[in-house]
Amino acid sequence: MFLITLPLTCYHINLYVKRQHLVDVTEVFSVLNAEKKFRLAKLAFYLVLLIITIFRFVMPLKLHMLICYALVLDPYCLTSCLNV
Hints:
Layout: H1 2-17, H2 32-73, H3 78-82
């Protein structure tokens, strides 16, 4: 996850160092279309990151529930349940 977010974090740090993170009210409308596209791309990136995070959270829980269910039904079928 760190390596996925590293480029965007470096980009944000670069904007902050160059002081380009501030919005100039006199130049807002000249860069509006480019900013819209960039912010939509960032939104899509953050949504993909959210989906990956939720998936990585849910899959171990699902595996744990499968193992617990197998142990309740038949304690000796654990190896056969993990092969499924």
